[in-house]
């Protein structure tokens, strides 16, 4: 079985990557660009399997391949991290330790330096080393500039950046990568992925599918977020506060109950809910602009409770005018 057969609805990406391997014309840098949750990370894993193992990969089980990749000496998989008491934690590690995450994770300068250190030695088993950087758009300018130096002279290595749009990265980084486009899936593609990953119950919830907009990964993430929020809080946030006191109390409950990552998801969820209410004439003014400003503030590491207080009070005042 070709590793790329696990990808759904990304024929152009499969063709470009497959031809690169078949013709042995591997670029030093790739940019896997497209929406979250449509298969970019899976494509990077499939590409790695084909590049490292070739025909041998077709004879191995999925579990065997995953174990081999996780321990392969020539693969470095980099993901955004949180900084807690001077220690870097991945999203999974932070959740496991119950760490209250007050700011979104990011690719840090120290991680980029570790990439350079990783590439300072030649590959041990494969013909080239491979580095995959997830959510590359979270790199600060200092980290991006440091990575640029590595991309200019990667040696016997290929670096894959995964990002939602070319505009989210420095143009100098983009110019040194071959772009591999990824697209949102149609409804049948989303259904295939959800059933394959044992999330068929999501298909019974149209609002989750609408919010995901053709991204099965986003549908799964939204479903998990909805399950984690208390029904009382979920009911409260769907209604614009009628008084300033309600707005302040709701802001307190949001900040107390949800970490910043969940709050960012909540902004997207509320934008979807309020837009539907506005179209149906259930509210007089759409608060989408206020919510979009709240998202920018949260991403800029502003104090979350203050962001929600200002946003909800503004929505309350607009509704009473």
UniProtKB/TrEMBL annotation:
| GO terms for biological process, alphabetical | DNA-templated DNA replication
Its domain of life reads Bacteria
Pfam families the record matches: DNA_pol3_delta2
- What is the protein's name according to its record? AAA family ATPase
Species source reads Aerosakkonema funiforme FACHB-1375
């Amino acid at each position: 079985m070709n590793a790329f057969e696990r990808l759904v609805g990304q024929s152009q990406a499969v063709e470009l990557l497959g031809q690169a391997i078949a013709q042995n014309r591997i670029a030093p840098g790739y940019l896997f660009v497209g929406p979250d949750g449509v298969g970019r990370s899976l494509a990077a894993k499939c590409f790695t399997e084909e590049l490292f193992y070739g025909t041998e990969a077709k004879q191995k089980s999925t579990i065997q391949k995953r174990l081999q990749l996780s321990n392969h000496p020539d693969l470095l998989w980099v993901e955004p991290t949180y900084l807690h008491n001077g220690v870097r934690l991945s999203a999974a590690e932070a959740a496991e330790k119950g760490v209250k995450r007050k700011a979104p994770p990011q690719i840090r300068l120290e991680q980029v330096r570790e990439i350079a250190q990783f590439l300072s030695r030649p590959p041990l088993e494969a013909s080239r080393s491979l580095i995959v950087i997830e959510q590359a758009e979270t790199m600060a300018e200092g980290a991006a500039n440091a990575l640029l130096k590595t991309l200019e002279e990667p040696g016997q290595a290929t670096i894959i950046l995964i990002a939602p749009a070319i505009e989210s990265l420095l143009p100098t980084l983009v110019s040194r990568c071959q772009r591999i486009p990824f697209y949102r899936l149609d409804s049948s593609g989303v259904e295939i992925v959800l059933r394959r990953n044992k999330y068929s119950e999501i298909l019974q919830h149209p609002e989750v599918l609408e919010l995901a907009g053709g991204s099965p990964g986003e549908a799964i993430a939204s479903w998990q977020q909805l399950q984690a929020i208390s029904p009382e809080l979920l009911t409260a946030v769907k209604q614009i506060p009628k008084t300033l006191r309600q707005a302040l109390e709701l802001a307190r409950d949001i900040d107390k109950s949800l970490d910043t990552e969940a709050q960012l998801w909540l902004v997207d969820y509320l934008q979807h809910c309020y837009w539907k209410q506005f179209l149906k004439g259930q509210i007089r003014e759409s608060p989408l602009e206020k919510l979009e400003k709240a998202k920018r503030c949260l991403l800029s590491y502003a104090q979350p409770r203050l962001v929600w207080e200002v946003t909800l009070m503004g929505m309350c005042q607009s509704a009473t005018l």
